[in-house]
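Response to reviewer comment R2.3. The reviewers asked that we include at least one raw input/output pair. We reproduce the pair for Chondroadherin-like protein here without editing.
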Amino acid sequence: GLLLLAAALGAMAAARCPAPCVCDNLRAHVLCLNGSLMAIPDTIPELTKKLDLRGNSFMVIPAGAFFATPYLTHLDLQRCKVERLEEGAFRGLGRLVYLNLAFNSIALLYQEALDGLSSLQQLILKGNRIEEIQLGAFGHLGSLTVLDLRANALVYLPDMVFQGLQLLRWLRLSHNALHVLGSEAFAALPALCRLSLDHNELQALPGEALARLDGATRLDLGHNPITYVAEEALAMASLRHLFLDHASLQDVAPDAFARSPQLRMLDLRENQLQGLPPLAGAGGLARVSLDGNPLLCSCLLRPFHKWLVRARVQAEGACAAPPALRGRSLDSLKPPEMRCSRLRPPPSPTPPPEQPRAAGSRQCPRRCVCSPDFHHGSCENRELQEIPRDFPEDTRLLDLRQNPFRTVPPDAFPGLKELVSLHLQRCSITALHPGALRGLGSLVYLYLTDNHLSTLAADAFEGAPQLAYLDLDHNAFTRVPAGAFRLLPNLISLRLQHNAIGELAEGDLAGVRGLRWLYLAGNAMRHIAPAALAPTTMLEKLQLEGNHLLEVPTAALRGLIALSELKLSRNPIKHMGDSVFLPVASSLQHLYLDNMGLERISPHAFTGLGPKIRSLYLESNKMSNIPDMSNFTGLEILNLQNVPFHCDCQLLPLHRWINKLNLRVGAICGSPAEAQGLKVKLSTTFQTCPGWGQGEAEETNPNKTKATSKPSKRKRLGKSPAGGFSKSTA
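Raw output as returned:
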């Protein structure tokens, strides 16, 4: 055995370490961080156990990408610009226990994408743009205990979507846009202990779906627009901790938690509750938090107060009215103090009655496949020239991709009132007729990618008011179809990438008041009208890369108070003037200015920006200096690669600032000749500058102790998004 071990270690040591990676043969670790790798290296030592590839540019993980490293246990692919996982991408990694794919651009999870990961215990998919999960995507992950899907673009969870996750203990779905959950969405999770659904768009407690979680002990539902908790709304036999904070609750039924007998802690902070009835059904409750509610401490609150005392429940909260009791804590009140006089509470909202579901009775159309268990229908790539009819009425996902339909006629989908997702990609569609989607009252996703659409009628989307995700990438639009979106008040994401749109005019986006993500990359836009984005006051992401803009559209950014990400990469902007980002300075976190041929940035271009900026991409430009960014104290990524810095005394402030950062930024001197190719951080050309002193000398001497404070834990750990740099030296 010792001989075999020695032989294995010898083989590891003899294996060639691929550039630009660092190999720790003793611990079987390989790091290839923040480089320009476009493909998975095929010369990684076979016995590698931990492989860290953060911050590269893979785009696609092909089938069998890791066949050469079958002993991997940990694989980190964060911020690698991954858009697609091909089927079988991780096949052969039967020993892998940890896979991190966070902060990429994955939109869909296909059935076999995660095949071969039979030992995987943690899967991190946070911060992608996953809109839809195909059934069976997790079917091969029988050992998984933690699944992190936070901060994606999920609106809908179909039945049995997590099938196969028999050992899953924590499912993290926070910060999506979920507002539709199938009644069997969580049916295949027998070991689940914790479910995080906070920061979504749920308007009612999804009691039917949650009832399948017999073993869950903690449920996070905070930050959802839930207004009412009805009688026996929650039937979770093992639930102990329930978080409903920062919602829109106005009333809770007395027996709301009667079917959750183990409930111990109830968090109702920051809602709109003026009072509560005695929660007689929650017999085991020990603590209820009501801080931040407008509690009316009148006689109407006495029954609740009496119940608190009798049941020995600790209550946190204070009176908001009447004035004589304002600020008094609930536990300090005496019943005689709670008088009614002339105060009257507002009527409690009545929950809408549940509508009975219509059972599907129709058969599947010829040449199509229907799955009654999953409510799916598929006619993909069947050379159909007309859209088939007579799908079962309970169909929720309909896949009609790759059929030469050419047009979508009026009333093309009769009887499909429960349809949630409709796929019409690559169908040679030139016209979406008015009323084509009539009757699709539950439709959330519509994919029309890779067709020949050049215009849309004003009533093209009539009958689909719940549509939240509309994908029109790779069509033939030369302008945004103005007026077509007025019938889509719930639209969250609009994709119009890779068309031929020449400008964004005023009125083009009329009606999309709730739009959060707007993708316009790869068009031919030269101009954005000052009022073009005015209707999109809730916009969070604006992607304009790969257009023909000659300047930052500053005027159009006014009013975008929630904008956190702005991409202007690959636009021919040569000069950047003063205060160009000032309208979004209070919210902007991620700014992409790379590959623009940028020659000059005004010293005041970044006025207003500061600690909120987390990532700044300036790589592959032509300027020789950049403005003072010393107040960018929240930076996690700064990419200055392939910028020809002129390392003379005018660059000394940048040199000093970079020396204080705990980030790798990739800044290289382009001139003068004696400094060409050297890192700005290490260049000696600054030592002749006026003001050069002992401080700089100490920072460049590794044998001396730095007289600086330790970096924050966040920066020491170093996040490294795609194309960016973190940790280590510049």
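DSSP finds six helices and 45 strands in the chain. Residues 2-14, 342-361, 697-730 have pLDDT under 50 and may be disordered. Further pairs are available on request from the corresponding author.
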